[in-house]
Design brief:
Layout: H1 3-11, H2 20-25, H3 33-45, H4 54-61, H5 67-82, E1 85-88, E2 94-95, E3 105-110, H6 114-125, H7 129-137, E4 141-145, H8 148-155, E5 178-181, E6 186-190, E7 192-193, E8 202-203, H9 210-225, H10 234-249, E9 265-266, E10 272-274, H11 276-290, H12 297-306, H13 308-316
Parallel strand pairs: 1-3, 3-4, 4-6
Antiparallel strand pairs: 1-2, 5-6, 7-8, 9-10
Helix pairs in contact: 1-3, 4-5, 6-9, 9-11
Length: 321
């Protein structure tokens, strides 16, 4: 256990239990990568949950902070939650937003539970305001649907039966719970889906990494809103090709990272038209940075190590600010 972890555990000694959701919302108050790692260590080793105010958590994180300062920080955090997006009901009425507020990323809900709406609101609260504002300014939106079949019925699409790029031919839209439609600039989250090899439909919330997958797909939207400035960067493409070859030739990473090592798709002029492997790697790096990886722990560690050169370019370009 690191000294940073021991220090934080000591500061948290007066708090009874640990609520990972509230702590996740305080990522912005943790001013170093080392502290974030230390907190992750504590979260993994403490199955219990804290009961207390956000202000108390802040004081636990920073003992030098006064109660008044913590309460002010809590008020700012609560305000930040409201400034990001609006919930739009089926009839277009804006819910859960202050009147007169601007720059709200619209979220439309269609026959989904309040619990599911709350879960997606929580996911969005973990992301920088500037990222959501960029999507708003380019008229991106979020839709929450009961399942892929109701989405298809509403939009006159056939996503439920379409093959998903990067997977086997029998892996179709009914097997996913969230996706970004780059043709319409809509991020779609489904409350129910049918996991591959499971012959029944289950709530998305039953899957442990649903939150990370949502943020992964938000990463695709954010990448497009930025003009694919990392994906289409020649330096990045060169780095990725070297990584891709190494991954596929290594028995340690071939299976775990095969999805992120898909070959480029060429157009009729033999030029790169799409870079699916690089695109997925960028989105997963984004998810890992803000909400945790959507992969198994082994694959997540492998991706973090192997694709570090790509993350460094993303960081240099202010991708995570």
């Amino acid at each position: 256990m690191s000294s940073e972890t021991e220090k934080l555990e000591s500061n948290l000694g007066k708090v009874v239990e640990l609520d990972y959701r509230l702590i996740s919302q305080l990522d912005a108050t943790i001013d170093s990568f080392e502290k974030q790692n230390a907190y992750s260590e504590i979260l993994e080793s403490n199955p219990n949950k804290i009961q207390g105010s956000v202000g108390e958590y802040l004081i636990a994180l920073r003992p030098e902070m006064t109660l008044n300062e913590a309460e002010e920080a809590q008020e700012k955090l609560e305000q930040k939650k409201l400034d990001s997006f609006a919930i739009v009901d089926d009839d277009g009425e804006i819910l859960s937003a202050k009147s007169g507020m601007k720059e709200l990323l619209p979220i439309s809900r269609f026959n989904v539970s309040n619990e599911f709406v709350s879960a997606k609101k929580f996911d969005l609260q973990r992301l920088p305001e500037s990222h959501k504002r960029l999507l708003f300014n380019q008229k991106f939106s979020v839709e929450l649907h009961k399942d892929i079949w109701s989405y298809d019925q509403m939009h006159k699409t056939n996503f439920a039966t379409e093959a998903v790029q990067g997977y086997s031919a029998d892996y179709t839209g009914e097997n996913i719970d969230v996706f970004f439609d780059k043709n319409t600039n809509v991020l779609v989250a489904l409350e129910y889906f049918k996991p591959k090899n499971l012959n029944k439909i289950i709530p998305t919330g039953f899957v442990y990494n649903a939150s990370a997958r949502f943020i992964h797909e938000f990463g695709h939207a954010y990448s497009k809103a930025r003009g694919y400035d990392v994906e289409l960067n020649q330096q990045v493409m060169n780095k990725f090709e070297l990584i891709r070859v190494n991954v596929l030739n290594s028995p340690d990473t071939h299976k775990a990272l095969e999805y992120f090592s898909q070959a480029p798709i060429l157009n009729s002029q033999k030029k790169i038209a799409e870079h699916p492997g690089l695109r997925e790697a960028i989105a997963e790096i984004y998810a890992s940075n803000f909400g945790g990886s959507s992969l198994t722990s082994h694959a997540a560690r492998s991706l973090a190590e192997v694709f570090m050169p790509i993350k460094q370019v993303m960081n240099d370009k202010g991708y995570f600010k």
